[in-house]
Amino acid sequence: MVLALLKYGLRNSYPAQRDIITATDLKPSYDVVIIGGGGHGLAAAYYLAKYHGITNVAVLEKGYLGGGNTARNTAIIRSNYLTDEGVRFYDESVRLYQGLSNEFDFNIMYSERGHFTLAHTDAALRTSRWRAEVNKHHGVDSELIYPDEIARIEPTLNMSRNVRFPILGALYHKPGSIARHDAVAWGYAHGAAKRGVELHQKTEVTGLDIQDGRIVGVKTNRGDIKCGVAMQAVAGSTSLLAKMAGFKLPIRTIPLQACVSLPMKRFLDTIIVSGSLHVYISQSSRGELVMGGSTDPYTLYNTRSTLDFKEGLMTHMLELLPFLSGVRILRQWAGMADMTPDFAPIMGETPIKNYYIDSGWGTWGFKATPVSGKRMAETLATGKVPDLIQPFSFERFYNFEQVGEKGAASVGH
Questions:
Q1: Cα–Cα distance between 195 and 370 in angstroms, integer?
Q2: Phi, psi values for residue 312, rounded to 5°
Q3: Which residues, 6 or more positions from 361, have their beta carbon under 8 angstroms from its beta carbon?
Q4: What's this model's pTM, rounded to 2 decimal places?
Q5: Which of 136, 256, 282, 392 has the fewest CB atoms within 10 Å of its CB?
Q6: Chain centroid, CA 287 distance in Å
Q7: pLDDT greater than 90 at residue 20
């Protein structure tokens, strides 16, 4: 092995190919332009090429691929939502996630852990029971369990009654998982580029060419291009781009912070969420504790992180896992969450013909990456919105047909 590495290092040329081929020059026109090179935009490009044979596609990313919210989330995957629409949608995403490593021939480090949503009040118990029944109706493995069973599955949790918020029960969702978030973006980028999709990084959209109510082109800092169809998938900047297109979305953008500890020996097998304590925590395959809390309570287009967040999160965290008091934080960061009034995404058509939107993901965008990409690709290719994402249309806010998913939010917003 050592000799083979030495021999390889002394070669004059290297046969290995780059995993992700990035394009150099923009073409004058494309069939499809996708604005945003995060997980959702890359997934849509991948499925367009793979299932619909549409490869004259450009993905425009103002930074680097997967460098926005895709790289800033805590990588939790689940389908234990509250509404019929949400459960069906996220269940398809979980099933797609389970096969992604084989599909990519690239390890996304998908790991099924089991997901607890802790209930500290009678109201939270009622909501957990409600979610469990909706989940079971759709064949999703979720159940309401009580302290003895919680302690058996996750013995590290503090089950004492002598705390501010004693644990009364939990919604336990066995398929709850984690995955390597940047690997998901890289897998989709590699698969799309291999099929002919162009990935343009450092390419910022500066304007949209709209004529007679129809998108016909996109203006960028590298020149103007024509397009037949365009889609925006720019979490954190959704409202700004929609304003550029000439319509307003019911979205407020607020920071969502997270942090990781120094790596330590694996002790936490499950994913733990507490809506009352505003905490969620899992342990990565590298041993880091990945931790997050509620969103910041004000609108802000910024990814700074704060001491206030860290102090508040640790106060709550130590009530659940007091033995972590000596653990050090390695780093912290923030993303920008686009929140809708009903805590459900906005997908599909916009007031601009042939201009589509994938937005409003709040704190649940990563877990929807495969299904949003697959279904938005179907929408772009056929011009018809699939039944699965019809409930998430922009029009629902005009027709008063909101989805009402707030009860399934992991933490307070």
A1: 18
A2: -65, -45
A3: 40, 69, 235, 337, 338, 345, 368
A4: 0.93
A5: 136
A6: 22
A7: no
